[in-house]
Structures are given as structure tokens and as C-alpha cells.
Amino acid sequence: MKLFNSLTNAALAASLLVLSPSLFAAKDAGVTGSLAMQNSDFFSRSAEPGGSLEVRYGDQVAFDVAIEGRVAKNSRIYVTVVCRQPDVVFQASNWTDYTFTMTDLAGQGLVWDGSAADCTASLIYRVDKGRQVVHTILDDVPFAVN
């Protein structure tokens, strides 16, 4: 009888997997997040009337991050910033509370002469699943450095 129950349970589990593989999706599949650039004193004042804020070369940028859902124990959440002109001139990743300084990063092999660049900050959710690493972009924020 024990063998019959084991075989029945195995057959049931196999049929569920075939019929609905989403039942066996990663537990962290419901993680969502949002990323927003902080309004900060780090930004330079522009010459526009009203003193709107803009990011300039040498400024620092930080981000507000909100995460919802169950985060896996073996995961990391971080921000990656990439700037192009059109080639990549800046690329850095760090924890969500990090403040990025928008300047050339010596030693990376990238050269940024301080001229305008189009940038994107991405909120990344990384889960280590044995030998496999899964990266998910939860949100993106485009911005310009002038």
C-alpha cells in the first residue's frame, strides 16, 4: 500500500508539472520594485528660470527604492547605472542606498571626458539558484547628465 501511495503521489506531481509548470515557478517570482531618482541637494542648479534641477558631470545621484513581495534568502537587490555617448562611458553597480558620483571611473577602461551622456539606472533583483544566476530588471529610470 505504501508503494502504491508513493507511486500515486509521484504521478500526481508529474501531471501537475506537465499541466501547470507555473505552479513550480520560483518562490520569488512575485517580487516587484520601483526606482526613482531622489531630489537632492547633490544636483547642480540649471540656468533655467525657477532653478529646476539637473544632473551635471561630477554630481552625485541616489535613488529611492521600493520592493514588494517575498525576497529569496539567496538574493541581492542593487542598482546599476550605465551612461552612453553612444559608447559606454560610465558603468557602476552598488547597493540600493549607494550614492553614485557621475564622473569618469579610472581603471575601468571607460573614458568619460565630462560631455553630455544619456544614462539609465536599473533596479536589479539577482537570485542565485545553484549554479544558475537569474537577473531580473525590476525598474529603469532614464536620465541625462549634461
How would you portray this structure in words?
With 146 residues, this protein is mostly beta strands. It has one domain (26-145): Immunoglobulin-like. Helices cover 12% and strands 45% of the residues. It has one helix and ten strands. The chain has one helix spanning 2-19, and strands at 32-37, 44-45, 53-54, 60-61, 63-68, 75-84, 88-95, 100-101, 117-129, 132-145. The strands form four sheets. It has a four-stranded antiparallel beta sheet, with no helix packed on it. Strands 1-5 form a two-stranded antiparallel ribbon. The longest helix has 18 residues, at 2-19. The chain is globular, with a radius of gyration of 22 Å. The model is unreliable at 1-28 (pLDDT under 50).
